Amino acid sequence: MLAKVEYGGVQKYVKVPESDECFHFHQFLKDVMDKFSLQPQFFTEGVLILTDTSDTEVDADIFDELVKSGVRAFKVGYRMQTATDIEISVVDDESESSVQPIPLALLTSPVSLSDHPSSPASTSSSDSTMILKSTKNRKKGLQELDRDEAKQKVCSVLSSNPKGEEIFNEYDKTKTLSDPTRRQMVNILVADMIESHGIPPISVRTNYALGIATLFPYLQDPYSKNGYEHYYDPEANTGYLAWRLKIVQRNTYDGASGCPRPNFQHSPTTRRESLFVSGQLFGEECREALSVIRHSTDRSVVKEKMKATFEYRQKLVHDPDATSAILDVFPRFLDTPGLIDQDFAMMLGDEASGRFLTKWSSYFKQKIIAETQSLPSSPCVEELRASFDTEASNDWGWDSDMAALLLLLHLLPPTSKGHKKTARISSAQAANHLVRFIKEGVSLTTFLEKANTRQPFLLCIGEQKKNIQRFFIVVDQKAIPCDAPTSVAAFDGLFKAHFVFSLSYDEALSSFYTFIQTTIYNIDVGNTKESPRVKELRARLLRDR
Length: 545
Description:
The chain folds into 4 domains: 2-78, Phosphatidylinositol 3-kinase Catalytic Subunit, Chain A, domain 1 (Ubiquitin-like (UB roll)), CATH 3.10.20; 83-103 and 114-139, no CATH class; 142-248, no CATH class; 348-542, no CATH class. The protein contains 23 helices and 13 strands. It has helices spanning 25-36, 40-44, 60-68, 120-123, 136-139, 142-159, 164-174, 179-197, 202-215, 240-248, 283-295, 299-308, 310-317, 326-329, 339-348, 350-371, 379-385, 400-411, 427-434, 444-450, 487-500, 510-520, 532-542, and strands spanning 2-7, 10-15, 18-19, 22-23, 48-52, 57-58, 73-78, 86-91, 129-134, 435-439, 457-464, 467-475, 478-482.
């Protein structure tokens, strides 16, 4: 399809690029520049604009619809700043004056260069000379200006790359980027950084990350400070851009020594005071309470005394020499369901305690299922997907809640943590660190003797995975009964056990648990170290499209 474009009183036909029944604004503007031999920096700096015949500016988001509606004539010109943004100073001595030509970015409306009159300062023969100075920062805060410049920079770099159009097209259609497309974008931007700056300073990396988040707003992480930290976090020197730079220049040094690294909390092992400090027992009273806890058969009394000894128990779990004996000192965890929930609520409040069960079914489960459609097919993934098909025969699969949790693990797979000698395990293998199943009738004692791990996992006992009769949380080869009616409620208890017993996440499940901690429970948001992949997935799931 051809469009008629006017520039400087000259009209030419320019082909409108199209693919997948979509007309592409950025490529069209580049073709216009080539046709009229305009300088590339006009596009890079956001100076060049497109209008229709009524002088209404045409933006990228409406270009496709406009062309499809029958608009075939455009004008190309330059964006100008209003007169209030020009500071005019008059001096008496011309020898003390300097005349600055008006930049192209300061023109008042979409007009061609040939239509722009000469500056009065350059033609005046009087003793007075006008000095024109841009004062746009007075109208526009520096932060907003940097955001616009960063956006234009990233847009220019991607537009000038043959693969850039594919990136814009995918985002326009899906409001997100798949993992391969995101990697492609990062590779393009890092290559440009290195070409322009060699070893790019932190400010450059930050500007590129800001440009990504501004150009593609649906990729922003709503829980992080600036929304772009999963692409580059200047405080921690992490993110997709930083990772790619390290791969390309493994031996470079970014000069950031002396910059303090953020003091991230490792949330499950963070020492926390009870939100209900009244009624805590110490000394002789505490020892008496421990005796009552051991011997009482009244569950309400046990729960009351457990609540009164919370602070003492927290001291034990955070004492490296005593933490392994916590189930020996408080054995009622092993026969009294609900104690983990009680301690967790005392630690973080009832609202935080109920967030997972409230949010999972109503919001996150379906979002995660939809997101997993992009996962590569594998026998394990297909088996989990079969749990959502009510018509398919699935006698050996998990119920839909557990299947969705395990698919979330596939979306946040284990990493090697940068250790070359540590082999990265698959998501299917990591699932064994999260949940295990044994059939009813198998010896629980024999199973526990072989379960050689300190990190908690969920043990499901039943005739079939989708029909569990009993749930246990296994810690230190001991089975804590989980009085949960569903697998999602049992998982809620498993997650809470990490905090109650001050246990770090299993390394293979670190990203998985961190996502659940910050994004669903909203615990220690901003104070917990998150991988870029965690932030990226959150951005995908929480953005309304």
